[in-house]
Amino acid sequence: MKYTTMFRFTALTISWLYCAALAQAGQVVSQTERDWAKQALEQEQTLTTQGVTSAPNSLAVLYFNNRSGQGKLTPLQKGMAVMLITDLAKVEQLRVVERVRMQALLDELDLGSSGLVATESAPRVGKLLGVAKVTSGDIQEGTAQELELSSSILDIPLDQLARQPSAAGALDELFRLEKEILFHIVEYMQITLSPQKRAELKRPLSKSTPALLALFLGIDYSDRALYNLAAKMYKQALAEDPSLAMAKSALQELKDMGLIRSEEVAEQGEPSEPAVESQGGISTGTVIGVGLGLAAAGAGAVYLLNDDGGDDTTEQAPAEGPTVTDIPFTTPLSCAQGGIRFQFSRDMDTSVGQVDINSPSGFEASGGWDGDYYFSWSQNYRWCTVNCEGGCTLTVMLTDFQDTEGNTLSGTTTFSYDME
Q1: What is the DSSP letter of 81?
Q2: Using the 8-state DSSP alphabet, how is residue 269 labeled?
Q3: Residue 169, by phi and psi: left (phi above 0), alpha (psi -120 to 50) or beta?
């Protein structure tokens, strides 16, 4: 029986290595990846006691940590991993974990909300993914308004952490900074690239930082099953860079999987609700303000994506205070399980702010910051039957929230929702 269990786990690992060698085919975490993640955790005890020999050239790229204090850089946490995985998968000598497979495991480990793996947890995640090495990094604010990216590689069998040279530059040079990190990793893995392969790897995913950030936001929304929002972000990315193939294929993937309707893929027209409403979406009339704050010369541009499918890039005069947009996880909200995300138009002071909830007695929710502010809940069936049978109302008031310059919220700060 011992050998049968080990054989099953080894076969699972070999199957993963084959799949991970393929180019990144999609951004939606499917049931196949979720089943794999669940089985990996079920087999973890076998992995711990008997071990699995991983190929020395197998690698997982974990999400980066945003330590800059700037909320606008949060999309880079997944974005850096997306770019690195896409490039590293092109190196034939490497076996790289697909991002959706890693995301499925993080979801199974209850790390999916932020996707961040603590240093002490990285060896466990690497073993579950069946790799010999994991790499991650930090996003920091450098001098003179520069962005600094640092990375490190953990050798799991040797339990050794190797810090890599950092890359620094303006945010508009994001595509160049990623390439510096990429080639440091390739060099550490002792891989010799042909001139043709090196030239291929130098080609950027996109030279448009606004397009890249919109793409990364779309991928994050997709991971949270907010497919309607994901589609909007992919369209925004294509508006900034029509040649961004990953955004185009990700948008088409949502349509092919029936997660959005065909109208949402069209260049014009009002987006409709996603086909899988129970997994997320927004109501008609919602305006998504993506505070990317980017322009080629550092001008403060705010990129707005409206529900009519149009894109508008204008330089906005600063408001008296930051504004907030609410994004329910589902429409309508479920009493049993759900949540709401609040996006702010400026970088916020995360040490202040209070959320007051008016709901049936006994309703419990928890929340926090992960770039945006969110809170979620999970009530038992009996509580919902007693307190919310036939529907009930949830009212949320945001008070004492401030941006990093001390300006309090302006505009709407009280939101009401129907729960079923």
Answers
A1: H
A2: S
A3: left
